[in-house]
Specification:
Blueprint (H helix, E strand, L loop, with lengths): L1 E6 L5 E7 L5 H7 L4 E4 L9 E4 L2 E4 L11 E3 L5 E4 L6 E3 L5 E3 L4 E4 L5 E9 L2 E12 L2
Parallel strand pairs: 6-12
Antiparallel strand pairs: 1-2, 1-3, 4-5, 7-10, 8-9, 8-11, 11-12
């Protein structure tokens, strides 16, 4: 058996299929419904790799700096740095933005734990929890 990754134009892997070794490339492409395919080694899973420059590349971890707890007063900010430019951040309300300067700032006026999700094709998805404590 051979393993093939079916991937999107941005390099993200859509699915991995196992095909018999006796199939030629044209037959394998037919199984992939005309999508882009590439042979992949055993270690590759959809979440830990992507396709870049026609090669399978391992996703990297972002060096995010987790913030200290903040006061839930709407003014104190949690600052997360170490974010590569172009990474998407999904805020607790579901809005998604692209990081353009390597950091994000978050403030809130209600106590609780808030999760920010960071993702990009080249990086493993990561989450950062921000604890907002009642202002005294």
């Amino acid at each position: 058996m051979s393993r093939l990754a079916v991937y999107r134009p941005d390099g993200s892997i859509n699915r991995i299929i196992d095909v018999p070794d006796f199939l030629d490339e044209a037959q394998a492409e037919t199984l992939a419904s005309g999508e882009q395919i590439i042979a992949v080694p055993e270690w590759v899973e959809m979440r830990n790799a992507y396709v870049g420059n026609e090669a399978v590349v391992e996703r990297q971890t972002m060096a995010l700096t987790p913030p200290a707890p903040i006061a839930a007063n709407g003014q104190e900010e949690a600052v997360i740095t170490g974010i590569p430019v172009g990474v998407s951040v999904t805020w607790p309300d579901g809005q998604t933005d692209e990081v353009t300067d390597g950091e994000v700032r978050f403030s809130v006026d209600l106590p609780g734990t808030y999760i920010l999700r960071f993702s990009a094709v080249e990086y493993l998805g990561q989450e950062v929890a921000i604890e907002a404590v009642a202002a005294s």
